Amino acid sequence: MELVAQEVAQHRPSSGDSPTRLQEILRYDESEDDHNEIEKSHFNEKGNQEVLHGGRLVSTYDMAELGKLRYSSEVEYSAMSTDDYEHLDVKVLKRLREVTYQELDCLINQSSNTILNSLLNGLCPDLVASRAEAVRAEEQAGNDVMSTPLFICTLAMPAMPTFLHVFEPRYRLMMRRVLEGNRQFGMVMYNRTSSSQGSLGSVPFLEYGTMLEIVNYELLRDGRSFVETRGIGRFKVRAHGMLDGYNVASVERVEDVSLAEEGALEQRETTMARDYAESHFRENPQAQLPTDIAIESLSTQQLLDVCTAFVREMREASAPWLRDRIIQVYGEPPEDPALFPYWFASVVPVLEEEKYVLLRTTHVRERLKIVYSWIGRIRGQRW
């Protein structure tokens, strides 16, 4: 109605001297059941009378705005000159059709009412019917096998927030369905190099992704939305298809190996690395230990300690990627070695393609070793 008010206000100056007498005719509103018969009989009487300008449409609007035209009343019009000012009505009606069409086309899901429905059905019935048919088609949710909607956009990490600006019509529809469902969808990266993704072949996205859950949703007037999500797990795409313009998939959850298997890997690697180191220094006392052996000689806890110490060092040095506003969004570095690499990848300035490797890695130790290698490279760049 704000748009209608704006159009009427813009129309008034151009209407000139165009007087029309408006007579309110009271009518009984059938929806009001609490009137007795005597009261109902009074509704055949005449109500307020006004002389207004701008043609019938604008005059009627102005009379209602003045509070002198009841919701259930009708109006009789009397021309006060030889001109009935029909051209003014044609002009304003054309503009009202245009602005109400734009409002109808904004894809915003808001509650309606009787007056709004009457206006839309009267001004643009074909468009209303077309939109209703489109919505019915959209609401026919896809197939049961491809149950995970995919958002092909950016890299998201488990347990970390991801913020989205949704503006494409296909993803607007997807988000609406997600909100009506379990509020979860999959985030996958673009396959920029068109490389083969396992059994999927060359598809437009990378096969590993992160399942996101919507925690906050803000819908704008023009249909765009801002969405705050949090990663709740990893997955691998097994099969995919299309539903109303966006990708859907059958996915397999990606889990870390058991604690027993993780411990066995740590024991095996550290033992072999230390044995190698002893032999290496025996033969070459002054030689430096190869980087990969040096990393594998560290326990998982030692790897985490080195990584967290580096974060403290960088914060003390006021590294731009560890400013307060970044920490406010992603939180303090986790003490859990399983989660720390995801946090680090969310803040560190490293290529997304390198961070992506974390999603398909099922060993906590391996993820920490990847982070350790990034730290070594950052130190080298600084010096």
Automatic annotation (TrEMBL):
The beginning of the lineage is:
Eukaryota, Fungi, Dikarya, Ascomycota, Pezizomycotina
Q: From what organism does this protein derive?
A: Didymella pomorum
Q: Which SMART domains match?
A: LON
Domain (Lon N-terminal) spans: 145-379
Please identify the protein, giving its name as recorded: Lon N-terminal domain-containing protein
Coiled-coil portions: none
Question: What Pfam families does the record point to?
Answer: LON_substr_bdg
Q: Name one GO molecular function term.
A: ubiquitin protein ligase activity
Chain spans, region Disordered: 1-20
